[in-house]
Amino acid sequence: MISEEKLKILVDSAKFDVSCSSSGSNRKNNGGIGNASYGGICHSFTEDGRCVSLLKILMTNVCEYNCLYCVNRRSNDVPRAIATPNEICELTMEFYKHNFIEGLFLSSAVYKNADYTMELLLETVIKLRKLYNFTGYIHLKGIPGADTNLIMRAGEYVDRMSFNLELPSEKSLKLLAPQKSKKAILSPISMISGEKQWNKSIKSRFLPAGQTTQMIIGASPEKDGHILKLTEALYKKYSLKRVYYSSYIPMNLKSNILPKESAGLLREHRLYQADWLIRFYGFKVNELISEEDNLSLDYDPKCAWALSHPELFPVEINTAPVEMLARVPGIGLRSAYKIISARRYGKIDLEGLKRMKIPLKRAINFITTNGFYKGLKSENDIKLSLLENKNQPTYTQLSMFSSPEILRSVLIGEI
Amino acid sequence: MIYIIENSLENLLTAVFESYKNKDKQVSIFTNTCQTSCLEEIKIIKTDGEKANRVEKALRKILNYSYNHIKLAFRSGETNKNTVIFNYICETVNANDNISENFANSSVYSFYEIFRKVQKEVHHLKGFIRFSKTEEGIYYAPFSPDNDVCDLILPHFIKRYSSMPFILHDYKYNKLCAYNGKESKIVYEKIPPLKVKDEVNFLFKTYYQTVNIKSRQNIKLMKNYMPKRYHINMPEKDELL
Ligand code: SF4
Fold it and tell me: Which of A17, A401, B90, B164 has the fewest Cβ atoms surrounding its Cβ within 10 A?
């Protein structure tokens, strides 16, 4: 079994990766150990409030590259370690049998060169499947620039693969991660998406949980509007399952290209909220934000949208279509469907909404029930009452997982 | 009016039958007499398979698949679960319609809440249960759930572990679900949870602590998602480990 020391080093440098979701696959167990649960399962929660679903670990943190924002960059003086494929396999198996995890999230720094590293990763996942008979979930982070054959072969064994975009523009990538290129990152993404399309028709097991990507927010100057546009394009063009954002944390105090401070969790949180609205609530990026702007920090994106569209409100609870109900601040999809269900049995009034435990604090300013409006009278009062940071001075500590909806979206990927 | 029943769904269904027959109003259900005040009239309801069956049939006709919600809700550990389920059944019979989604009705909503709690715990436990490897090589998981759900999570672990022998030990409802790699067995017995020494538990605690991002500490949130009552059986939360 792997030593405690090694485990610490390899986990410590992997932990900033946010995409620990284990959902979207329904791999069956035929005689081995493990299956994948479609909805995803959280096994624990760390003290920062994040879900532990996968064993997140690096093959090695020894790196040839020198991406300025990364702890593992070559020029950084940190303890280094290399795991063997067997060590990773054994650890995964035992953690899985103890019910600590849903599976493995394996990535790696670039050790020697891209191909060499990718080969190590491939060897590990093949061993895990063939020798250890592991049939649980595997998410593999691909190495940009590695041989396409290696990448495509890995896709036959794992549930999900991701190539990280790293930064929201080519210019920033050149500046901060000089050894990586836009082409080396986008070409496997595009190839995988093509292969998935093709495999759909022949029902193969190629990457059943698809691919995702991740961007670092706040290390470079791109605005939220730009980032969300890019996100929208990625969903459309490559049918990505998720785009993850990770707020930049200063780890290279020597660099003067990098900002001295983190972008803050609130910004990250707002991006996730907007991303959620785009994927499930039918919002277009244009409706929420223009390309040159950042999302409002004072209001969540749905609230900000509603406040700028007074002509559409209030909506009548007893007649509005579900899409419009879900656009009311404070009413989520689940609540909207509850209302639609209950409506079949008769008219709903405020008391009825309360009995259904629909939070009215914000919604009350945007709805009528049977024609009655009980919210605040003036637009200004509404704006003031909805201001989020009124009584939250500890703003920077607000976690991106503070809203249950976002937690679900971020961690479980469940709709 | 107070009905006293044993803790069985059949008995509860019999109670529904009796209340209609005797036109009893405002019924509360208890499973033993000491919970009741002496001001109200008390009836002891004996289980009657015939009567229970008739109620079940009628309900299945109205509810179809969602009859299972009643079975699931009955696993609830809430003290007032019998009354809540009783009211929901009566409301359904009176409406003679599947009103399971009429959330504006308070009987329906109360029922929905206890049903959801059971459902949620089943999901939670799939994640929060912890196995330790005993010297005999059996994976053993002691736990103490709010609701009586041990056998409901058993199929999940059988599917998952396929050929691996394990034991789920619910020491609150005194149930052991054992699986030997081929077939499973449920045993009812009052045994205190075993303490197992297992190195891997220690390694996981290290993992759990390392993967945490200290600058983003948010203990309140952690406890929200992983309620404290589950911590007792989690090695990552074991301060002595
Ligand atoms: S390639 Fe760049 S981002 Fe990846 S580990 Fe090396 S330095 Fe870090």
Answer: B90
Average pLDDT score, chain A: 88
Quick check: CB of A72 below 6 Å from ligand 1? yes
Other beta carbons less than 10 A from residue B90's beta carbon:
15
SS (H, E, C) chain B: CEEECCCCHHHHHHHHHHHHHCCCCCCEEECCHHHCCCCCCEEECCCCHHHHHHHHHHHHHHHHHHHHHHHHHCCCCCCCHHHHHHHHHHHHHHHCCCCCCCCCCHHHHHHHHHHHHHHHHHHHHHHHCCCEECCCCCEEEEECCCCCCHHHHHHHHHHHHCCCCEEEEECCCCEEEEECCCCEEEEECCCCCCCCCCHHHHHHHHHHHHHCCHHHCCHHHHHHHCCHHHHHHCHHHCCCC
Q: Which sign does the torsion angle of CA A353, A358, A362, A366 carry?
A: negative
Residue corresponding to tokens 């490559």: A238
Nearest chain A residue to B125, by CA: A43
Cα–Cα distance measured from residue B15 to residue A99, given in angstroms and rounded to the nearest whole number:
41
Q: What phi and psi, each to the nearest 5 degrees, are found at residue A152?
A: -70, -35
Give the chain B residue whose CA is nearest to the CA of A338.
B103
What residues contact residue B11 under an 8 Å CB cut-off, 6+ apart? B5, B45, B46, B47, B52
* Residues A297-321 pLDDT 10s: 999 999 999 999 999 999 999 999 9
- Whether the pLDDT of residue B189 is over 60: the answer is yes
Contact predicate B4/B43, CB 8 Å: yes
Query: What average pLDDT score do residues A179-205 get?
Result: 85
Our answer on whether the CB atom of A10 is closer than 6 Å to any ligand 1 atom is: no
Put simply, whether B133 touches A (Cβ < 8 Å) is yes
Structure pTM? 0.89
**Looking at the domain A4-264, which fold is it?**
TIM Barrel (3.20.20)
- Determine whether A175 is exposed, middle or buried from the number of CB atoms within 10 Å of its CB (0-12, 13-18, 19+): middle
pLDDT, greater one: A228 or A199: A228
Cβ under 8 Å to A: B residues 137-196: 139, 141, 157, 159-164
A54: β partners: A103
* Mean per-residue pLDDT of chain B: 93
Report the run of H or E that residue A107 belongs to, with start and end: strand A103-107
- Taking the CA atoms of B227, B197, A29 and B186 in sequence, report the sign of the dihedral they define: negative
Contact (Cβ atoms closer than 8 angstroms) between residue B152 and residue B173? no
